[in-house]
User: Fold these one by one.
Assistant:
Number 1:
Amino acid sequence: MRTLIKAKWIVANDGRGHTLLRDGVVVFEGKHIIHVGQSFDGPVDRSIDAGSKLVCPGFIDTHVHSGHRASHRLISDAGRPLYFGQPFLEISVPKEGRVVSGDPRYLKPGDTALNAALELNAMFTVAELLRNGVTTFVEFGSQESVQLALMKQIERFGTRAYLGPGYDSGRWVGDSNGGLKRVHDPEGGLRGLDIAVEFIRKYEGALEDRIRGILVPREVETSTVDLLEKTLGFADELKVPMATHAAYSVLEFHDIVREFQMTPIELLDKVGMLRTTLNIGHGNFIADNSNLNYSGARDLELMGTHQCSISHCPINIARRARTLDNWDRYRNAGVNVTIGSDTYPRDMIMNMRTASLMGKIMGHDYYKAPAGQVFEAATLGGARSLGRNDLGKLSAGALADIVIIDFDGRHSLRYGPVRDPIKSLVECGVGDDIDTVIVNGNICMENGVIPGLDIDDLRDRAQRSGEHIWSTLQDWDPRGRTAEEASPWSFPLHSH
Ligand SMILES: [Zn+2]
């Protein structure tokens, strides 16, 4: 079936990068785009008139942790200073002997999570990403049962993902004083790698090639050098990308420097992992960051020389009083900056806006982190980090992963007059403005409606799950705090 989309604005591509095509058409047939241009003379089976909307490549979210992220709601404007703003230490490290209620992501292989929780978390994740125009996402290290649950939802909703069970050589637990205790389990790391390799061998190319594998040693400081080296070996053998959290936390930076007398980035360089298809989440605490006061820094130069990728998750890190220092220096060094949501909301447009505003502030320069660059990071940058030349762009031969974005702001005045569609999108848009999503040539959402999904019911189920998680915090929190203690209400509760 051949489909033509006609629109006032199209993000086309001239082979060097994105271009703005005014009053043009995109034509796709089967999985692939066959033509982008001013007009098309051949026969078509279906026409979509997108009117004054914007037609652009689907977004690529390079940093997703599956789930509805209810536990993350406990750390808005709150947290424990000893974690230096590292969110997952706040909400993913349980008291010794306990598990984090309602979060199946870091259970060890063989641990059983409730199937209902797995299904709800996966459905929420894939549906939220689709609703926000994300056509490809990268899952960042959840365990195998989570990956399998995600795959079922991807099959159902029709989107595209890079999946692979994450692994590590031991995590943390909260010790009896409420501090952090590292658990060392090198054998567990190798078993986890085996599971990941087996998973990738089995599912690479599944669902009409919408599933691809990725190797994810979860964090550089929780992986032994042996585990990292073996990961690299399998990445070459299986020809898959890699992702890991590195240069992402003050604690991690100091741990690695103390253990190896080098920085996390220098360690990755020594192992040989620095490359474009290594997605470093988040890469903001590199030695060059003035907050770290590290002398002789060369992390940015190393990352740039190898053109490695970072998944920059601007909303998530800004909430923890951190930011990328800074967008322009990374770009100029040669780093491939991509954008991830990491947590809630999975809104790539809000993330683009935050990246742009933070880039200007940190650069002390309003020319920096312009709309075009953050849009490129959310599309072409993500594709590069996955080694893909057929994603993130609209041109003949690329896969038909397309989103149509409405500038009526859901019947509001939010956009006002639109001159430059990309600047308008980055400045005024939200994920809800996505009108239509096409993946692999199939329409997965139309007029904001995802076929077969009751969005209100899904939100209700996530709310109930959240209420349960919040009410059980004292059971697994290392300090035994209730939700009220850990996360005070924004105003005192009114007494009647
Ligand atoms: Zn992450």
Number 2:
Amino acid sequence: MFTFLSSANKTFDRGVHPGDFKELTRTHMVERMPLVDEYILPLSQHLGGPSKPVVKAGEKVYRGQLIAQAGGFVSAALHASVTGTVTAIEPRPHPSGRMVESIVIKRDLHSAQRLFDEHVLDWENMQPAELLSAIQKGGFVGLGGAAFPTHVKLSIPEGKRVEFFIVNAAECEPYLTSDHRVMLEQPEAIFLGIKICLKILGAERAYLGAEINKLDALARLQNKVPADLPCEIVPLQTKYPQGAEKMLTEAVLKREIPSGKLPIDISVVVNNVGTVAAIGDLFRYNQPVIERVTTITGPGIRKPRNVLIPIGTKLSEVIEFCGGMSDDVRQILFGGPMMGNAIRTTDIPITKGTSGVVFFTEDEMISTREYPCIRCMRCVDACPVYLNPTQLGALARAGRYDEMMDLNIMDCMECGSCSYACPSNIPLVQRFRIGKALLREKMARERANG
Ligand code: SF4
Ligand code: SF4
């Protein structure tokens, strides 16, 4: 049994302590979003190549039926989130701000919306490769927000082996509570998902790391760990960005992932707790990724909630379900306040990676006026991967991007801890994002030119 004394709990070095603001929704049970008339399913809602449609406009589709296949190994399949008719495959507004090719489904108002081909998958008699294939076919991506295809993460390269599987339940982003509620409400699905992942990976042991601002979830999971499952529940101090794979691995195992390397390079695989629970549901019901729990929160939404939302539901419909926005909303973020993206329209769909939507009013908007750097080094103390944000920021401001490479800018996780810590309001992480994108483009051009 563990104790919850914070001094005894594990964590990583550096990082920041933003207020968590999770009280708005942490005690709200997950509610199911009522069905709406139209669903918009973008072909790009994961990292990697877009999915390729296998249906046409005018075709009838069933809830859970494959509508687009993966467009390569690093890609993901897509399934109908409702029974209805495909009305169009056309560009639609996307959370990224771009227009993205999407499959549009009009819901069949008379359908009972039963799951297409619902049945239990006999996982105990399936080989690891069969389990992995089922996950690939189910369109799984990281539901924590990164949306990296899960089957790629669980595919172990030749010559590598996995000792430990870490379930990422840190949920360190302020305001978000979807993982917290999944832990409280779906422990059986989580533990089934862990069993299946351990079997695929051939790993010895699982660890589930969650911060102690989720004490009730930690206690509930601790009481429910199946006797035959080698899984340890690990309470962590509350600190940002503990949900980053490098930081979580350091916190849980005290193992460092070297610069430019991945968890697998130190025999570890990390996966988000919501994804693991959804894997459990895949094997319990043959349910692919067609819905997800999303936290709808912030001072600018009238009824903050955790909502189980079919993928492709328009944000405007979700806002209506949550009582509407207050009149003084000034910013809407897809994701949390540290790593989320500001969106300009509510005419965009909830995608597989939408862990939360946060609504801010005038009162929460802080001044964006930038002051000169005062060399306080708070950004250096905050950076969990030991970069020098003040120096990198100066280079970025001068457009000296090549020199940023020498200071390991590509190790930057864009966590925003440096910007949060900076008393001069210097938009460090924003500059690093631009610098990294330009450097990536330059590297791609150089590769193309030989
Ligand atoms: S430099 Fe990058 S990794 Fe370091 S704190 Fe800033 S955003 Fe995070
Ligand atoms: S925190 Fe801001 S002001 Fe302080 S050294 Fe870093 S960039 Fe300069």
